[in-house]
Design goal:
Blueprint (H helix, E strand, L loop, with lengths): L1 E3 L4 E11 L2 H11 L4 H10 L5 H19 L6 E10 L3 E6 L5 E6 L1 E10 L5 H5 L1
Antiparallel strand pairs: 1-2, 2-6, 3-6, 4-5
């Protein structure tokens, strides 16, 4: 999914039905939002969270969309917006003592990342 405005072009990638809660994914997305593509990859590589792997895949997909659809240079890309929404919940039950059953909710989420292209000299201005 892509959108074009006057001066900037935006490429979007979605990752649907990702195992993990949206709140845990959002704490990682909040840290990379507004960063350049290279900086975001470095940050994701060294974060200790499980959700960084699917976020990295969606980010690489957004950059591939930008390169293929618009011919953008990855060195000029920054993350303009990143968000995670709740997906469907898989409900499971765990047997407990005396015939009881405790419910287990396995959360899923939908991750969306959009990247924009700006000239190299303005990336530092965008990050501040």
């Amino acid at each position: 999914m892509t959108k074009t405005s006057l001066n900037t072009k935006t490429a979007i990638a979605h990752g649907n039905y990702i195992r993990g809660s949206a709140s845990k994914v959002r704490r990682v997305l909040d840290q990379i939002r507004g960063k350049s593509y290279r900086d975001a990859l470095i940050m994701l590589e060294f974060m200790p969270y499980r959700s960084t792997d699917p976020i990295t895949k969606v980010l690489r997909s957004a950059v591939a969309n930008a390169e293929h659809n618009f011919g953008m240079d990855p060195s000029t890309l920054f993350i303009s917006s990143a968000w995670a929404n709740n997906g469907p919940v898989m409900k499971r039950y765990r047997p407990r003592a005396q015939g009881r059953a405790f419910s287990i909710k396995k959360q899923t989420c939908h991750i969306s990342i959009s990247v924009e292209s700006v000239p190299n000299q303005t990336i530092a201005e965008v990050q501040n």
